[in-house]
C-alpha cells in the first residue's frame, strides 16, 4: 500500500499539470485568434488606406496582396489539419480541391472579361487561340456569380464525396489512402494540362478584369478580397474549433487513435471519415476561390502533388492537431519562402526539406508546441535536480548515522576473543 500511494500522487500531479497546460493553451489560442483577427481585419487595411505611403507604418498594396495569398494558404492548411491532425487521414491531394474551387470561380471571372480581351471576342482568349467556334455548354451557367459560388462548394464537395465513399467503403486507410489521393490529384493535373479539356491547358485561366463590376486589379478591390479572406479564415477556425469540441470531434479523434476500437464500439467510422473528408474539401475549395482573384491566375500547377506536400509541411511546422498551428505554419513557411526564393533561389527546396526534418526530429508538436516542450524540459530538469539532491542528502545522512552508531556488543566480544 505504501508504494501505491506515491505512484497515485505522481499520476495526479501529472494529470493536473497537463490539464493546466491545456487550459492555458486554449486561453492563449483564443487570445491569439482575437488579436490576429483584429490585426488582419482592422489594423492592416487601415495602415494601407489612412497612412501616407512615405510613412514607415504604411502597408503597401503589394503587401496586402501578398498576405491575402498567405491567408488563403492558411485556410487550406486548416483543411489539411482537420483531416490529418484530428482524423488521422493524411491526404496528399488536398490542393486538388483548392484548385477546383479556384477554377470554378476563375471561369466566372473569365466570362466577365467580355470583349476586353486580346482578341476582342466574347470567348475567352485561349478559346479563340485554340479555335473554339462557340462557348462550351458547361461554361454558360458560370456567367452567374451565385452559380460560380455554388460551383466552388459543390465541385470539390461532390468529388470528395464520390472518391471518399469508394475509398472508405473499401476500408482503405493509412499510407494507401495517401497514395490514392496523390494518384487522384496527379491524374487530374494531367487532364487539366490538356488543351482540349476546355480550361486553358498549362496556361490556365488569367487576365481577369472585373469582379461584381469592380476592377479586380484596383487597390480597393484587393483590399476587400484581403478582408474577405480574413473573415473566411476566422469563420473556418471557429467552425472547426466547434466541430472538434463536440461529440463528433471526440469520435473523430478516436478514429485517429484507434479506428478498430471505434468500430467495436458500434460507430460507423467510414461515415465519420467521409463527412470530414467532404468538409475539408469544401474548405479548401473556398480558399482556392479567394486565391484566384488575388493572384490573378489559376493553372494546373496549383493542383500538382508537390503543392499538397507543401501544405502538409505547413501543418507539421505549425503544429498538427491544433488548428492555430496550421495558420502559423502556413504564414511562416510562405513568408520564409518569399524571402528565400529571392535571397537563395537555388536552395529553397533544401531549406524546406531541412525545416521539415528538424521539425520531425526535434519539434514533434511544431511551433505551437514549443513553449510546452520547453516547460516540460524545465520541469524534468527541476525534478531531476531535486531527486539528485534528495538522494545526496539521504546518502550523507545514512553515512553520518553509520559513523556515529557504536558497534554492537557481539561485535566487540568477537574482537575481544580474537
Would you mind describing this structure in some detail?
The protein is mainly α. The chain has one domain (70-364). It is built from 15 helices and 4 strands. The protein has helices at 4-49, 61-87, 94-111, 125-130, 145-169, 175-192, 219-245, 247-257, 259-264, 269-295, 305-318, 324-343, 348-362, 370-404, 409-417, and strands at residues 205-206, 210-211, 214-215, 297-298. The strands form 2 sheets. The protein has a two-stranded antiparallel ribbon with strand order 1-4. A two-stranded antiparallel ribbon has the order 2-3. Strand 2 (210-211) and strand 3 (214-215) form a beta hairpin. Helix 11 packs across helix 12 (324-343). It starts with a helix and ends with a helix. The model is unreliable at 414-418 (pLDDT under 50).
What is this entry, summarized?
The chain has 418 residues and is mostly helical. It has helices at residues 4-49, 61-87, 94-111, 125-130, 145-169, 175-192, 219-245, 247-257, 259-264, 269-295, 305-318, 324-343, 348-362, 370-404, 409-417, and strands at residues 205-206, 210-211, 214-215, 297-298.
Amino acid at each position: 500500500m505504501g508504494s501505491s500511494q506515491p505512484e497515485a500522487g505522481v499520476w495526479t500531479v501529472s494529470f493536473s499539470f497537463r490539464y493546466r497546460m491545456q487550459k492555458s493553451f486554449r486561453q492563449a489560442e483564443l487570445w491569439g485568434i482575437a488579436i490576429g483577427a483584429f490585426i488582419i481585419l482592422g489594423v492592416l487595411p487601415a495602415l494601407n488606406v489612412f497612412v501616407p505611403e512615405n510613412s514607415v507604418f504604411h502597408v503597401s498594396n503589394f503587401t496586402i496582396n501578398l498576405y491575402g495569398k498567405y491567408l488563403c494558404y492558411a485556410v487550406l492548411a486548416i483543411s489539411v489539419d482537420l483531416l490529418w491532425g484530428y482524423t488521422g487521414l493524411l491526404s496528399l491531394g488536398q490542393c486538388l480541391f483548392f484548385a477546383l474551387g479556384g477554377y470554378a470561380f476563375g471561369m466566372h471571372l473569365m466570362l466577365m472579361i467580355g470583349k476586353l480581351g486580346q482578341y476582342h471576342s466574347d470567348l475567352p482568349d485561349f478559346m479563340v487561340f485554340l479555335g473554339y467556334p462557340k462557348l462550351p455548354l458547361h461554361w454558360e451557367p458560370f456567367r452567374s456569380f451565385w452559380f460560380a459560388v455554388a460551383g466552388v462548394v459543390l465541385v470539390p464537395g461532390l468529388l470528395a464525396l464520390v472518391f471518399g465513399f469508394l475509398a472508405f467503403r473499401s476500408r482503405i486507410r493509412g499510407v494507401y489512402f495517401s497514395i490514392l489521393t496523390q494518384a487522384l490529384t496527379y491524374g487530374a493535373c494531367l487532364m487539366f494540362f490538356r488543351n482540349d479539356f476546355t480550361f486553358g491547358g498549362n496556361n490556365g485561366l488569367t487576365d481577369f478584369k472585373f469582379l461584381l463590376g469592380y476592377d479586380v486589379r484596383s487597390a480597393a478591390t484587393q483590399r476587400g478580397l484581403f478582408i474577405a479572406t480574413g473573415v473566411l479564415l476566422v469563420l473556418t477556425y471557429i467552425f472547426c474549433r466547434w466541430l472538434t469540441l463536440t461529440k463528433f470531434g471526440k469520435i473523430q479523434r478516436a478514429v485517429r487513435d484507434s479506428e478498430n476500437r471505434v468500430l467495436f464500439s458500434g460507430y460507423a467510422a467510414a461515415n465519420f471519415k467521409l463527412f470530414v473528408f467532404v468538409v475539408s474539401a469544401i474548405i479548401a475549395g473556398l480558399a482556392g476561390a479567394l486565391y484566384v482573384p488575388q493572384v490573378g491566375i489559376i493553372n494546373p500547377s496549383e493542383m500538382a502533388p508537390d503543392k499538397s506536400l507543401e501544405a502538409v509541411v505547413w501543418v507539421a511546422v505549425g503544429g498538427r492537431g491544433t488548428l492555430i498551428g496550421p495558420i502559423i505554419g502556413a504564414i511562416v513557411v510562405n513568408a520564409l519562402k518569399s524571402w528565400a526564393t529571392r535571397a537563395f533561389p537555388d536552395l529553397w527546396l533544401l531549406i524546406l526539406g531541412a525545416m521539415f526534418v528538424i521539425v520531425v526530429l526535434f519539434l514533434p508538436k511544431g511551433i505551437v508546441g514549443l513553449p510546452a516542450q520547453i516547460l516540460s524540459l524545465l520541469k524534468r530538469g527541476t525534478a531531476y535536480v531535486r531527486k539528485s539532491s534528495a538522494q545526496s542528502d539521504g546518502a550523507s545522512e545514512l553515512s553520518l548515522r553509520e559513523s556515529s552508531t557504536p558497534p554492537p556488543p557481539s561485535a566487540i566480544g568477537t574482537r575481544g576473543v580474537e
